[in-house]
Amino acid sequence: MIYPIRLYGDPVLRKRASSVKDFSEIPRLAENMFETMFEARGVGLAAPQVGRLERLFVFAEYVDAEDEEEGEEADLKTRVKNQWVMVNPAITYRAGQQISTEGCLSIPGLYSDEVPRDLQIRVEYQNELGEKKTQEFEGYLAVVVQHELDHLDGTLFFERLPKDLKAAFLEEHRHELAEMQRRAKAFLKELKAQR
After folding, report:
1. Mean pLDDT score of the chain
2. At what angle do helices 163-172 and 174-194 cross, to 10 degrees?
3. Contact status, residue 120 vs residue 94, Cβ threshold 8 Å
4. Which of 97, 106, 153, 187 has a CA positioned 20 to 30 A from the CA of residue 2?
5. What percent of the chain has pLDDT over 70?
């Protein structure tokens, strides 16, 4: 099942997600989130981005992802090298600094090349079955994990920018962001009407 991805302006993206205690529906939810992520041609997707305030995200490492041509429509699932489901994740170790280029499925088409992130991290989490795991990441995958974990705390990538760069980002993209807010509001109105 493909979920609609919540856009900038949707209040669910600004809320802190709750810990998962019941894992009975998590495998199915994670499977649907992967389908949604692949359909949107993303690298990661957090539960709040599909309207679920649960501490869960999924992400994938692709083979040759950097070689993808703009607009190429190859099935991303065929290029997955590794994929993770992280439930109730917590970063327990951080080292080094890097500046990353980030975008977001909830803020489509907008990017920043100046997002400060930790270079190396260790994450303790549970998988979709509730089993406890620990994994270390560095470089690009460390960025992905930090970005998705931020979603669980209601933080969007541009909020990590230094104050002046954040102001410049918001000013440069104010028309696109306003349009996303309009679309988010219309979607919520439609959802309410369906209930």
Report:
1. 94
2. 70
3. yes
4. 153
5. 95
| Residue 56, strand partner residues | 87
Reported confidence tier of residue 77, pLDDT bands at 50, 70, 90: confident
Q: Are 116 and 136 in contact (CB under 8 A)?
A: no
DSSP SS3 for 174: helix
31 noted as active-site residue: no
Exposure string for 148-171, b = 16+ CB within 10 A, e = fewer: bbbbbebbbbbebbeeebeeebee
Among 53, 69, 56, CA closest to 14:
53
Of 22, 97, 90, whose CA–CA distance to 52 is shortest? 22
CA gap 180, 49 in Å, rounded = 14
Which among 54, 102, 128, 148 is annotated as catalytic?
148
Place of tokens 């995200």: 57
